[in-house]
Amino acid sequence: VRINILQLLCNMKTHWDSIYYMICHLHYLHQPIDLFLDKPNNKDMKKYKLLPMQWNVLPDFKLILEILHQAIHTLSSECLPTLCKYLITFKKFYETWIRLGQD
């Protein structure tokens, strides 16, 4: 398996989007993680292997958190975001969130 080198990340209370990045890395490393946990010398870690259903819902969590990530990233990209920028970003976030709930 050839992949880019990524580090599995831990949740950080001071960075709300660390879970988003953690899920992105986990999703990308799905195959190598499973291969690693399936090796006989890693049988003590086999209990941490995600079930197929858990892998299947991971992209859903990623999508949910991506909406929040984009909204916060938009606001934090400016030195002095204005109230107007906040309202526009929140409206876009809210509309996307509602659309996601309907799908």
Automatic annotation (TrEMBL):
InterPro entries linked: RNaseH-like_sf (IPR012337)
Domain of life: Eukaryota
Name of protein: Uncharacterized protein
